[in-house]
Write a structure and sequence with these properties.
By secondary structure, the chain is α/β, with parallel strands linked by helices. Helix content is 51%, strand content 12%. It has 2 domains: 107 residues, CBS-domain (Roll), CATH 3.10.580.10; 128 residues, no CATH class. The protein has a 4-stranded mixed beta sheet. The protein has a 3-stranded mixed beta sheet with strand order 2-3-4. The radius of gyration is 28 Å and the shape is elongated.
């Protein structure tokens, strides 16, 4: 699996204004373009970044000396934040982490243009990347909770009984099981699970097996083409169904 680089993150172009732009004009441009921040240039060189927050801070500070109205016609450089990092598209995400740890903004120089990234953009990217991992982790916790609630004190012995004669590693405790174990355990001990899974043994077995397949695709870093893209909707469906089963058992 190829490592992620800065180029994998969707980022916005950096819109810029000249250093002689007034604070009022800069604010108006932010609203007109929908840009939460602007680059500020002097002599065609980037000297810093200005955002809504930077402007608000300057106005608040000038308000303490009752000069907030007059400052609106001053140069935007009064509010500029000169702390920003620089990265290139081929840089690793680790370099991006380091830059954002020290500065609120990172400028990405593509050669043809400059783009800007805040930590919130990186957070969204990471959330999208690990969403399936978190969903599957929740599914596994729910399955284990259902097993514990259903089999209770006999769980360890039932695990040994179920897998001892099979050509499959025999787990000594629930934490050693994988999704294949979960599927077989439900099927072979159906009498204990039948009522809560609404008499749908094949459905439950296939559901768990499919989640296990998706989990293996992720954790083994298999290359996936467009037709084999991880099915987030299926994982979400499995999570909702199993959570419903568990909640019904607890509250019922």
């Amino acid at each position: 699996m190829a490592r992620h680089t800065v180029a994998d993150i969707t980022v916005a172009d950096l819109r810029t204004v000249n250093s002689d732009t007034t604070i009022t004009d800069a604010i108006e441009q932010m609203f007109e373009t929908g840009s939460p921040q602007l680059g500020v240039e002097a002599n065609d060189e980037l000297v810093g970044i200005v955002s809504h927050r930077d402007v608000t801070r300057v106005l608040h500070l000038c308000g303490q000396i009752k000069q907030e109205d007059s400052v609106l016609e001053k140069s935007i450089t009064m509010a500029v934040n000169r702390s920003y990092g620089l990265v290139e598209p081929e840089d690793s995400l680790f370099k991006l982490f380091d830059e954002l740890a020290d500065t609120p903004y990172v400028i990405i120089d593509t050669g043809d243009s400059q783009k800007i990234l805040r930590d919130v953009g990186l957070h969204q990217f990471l959330e999208d990347e690990i969403k399936e991992f978190l969903l599957i982790e929740e599914i596994e916790r729910t399955i284990r909770d259902i097993f514990r609630e259903t089999v209770e004190d006999e769980l360890d012995s039932k695990l040994k009984e179920t897998f001892f004669s099979l050509d499959l590693r025999t787990p000594s405790r629930l934490e050693e099981c994988n999704f294949r174990h979960y599927s077989i355990f439900v099927s072979d001990n159906w009498g204990a699970f039948e009522s809560q899974f609404e008499h749908k043994r094949d459905f439950v077995r296939e559901l768990i097996d499919r989640v296990g397949e998706i989990r293996n695709q992720m954790f083994h870093f298999r290359d996936l083409d467009d037709q084999d893209t991880l099915d987030t909707e299926f994982v979400e469906f499995a999570r909702e169904h199993l959570n419903y089963i568990y909640d019904e058992r607890v509250t019922g």
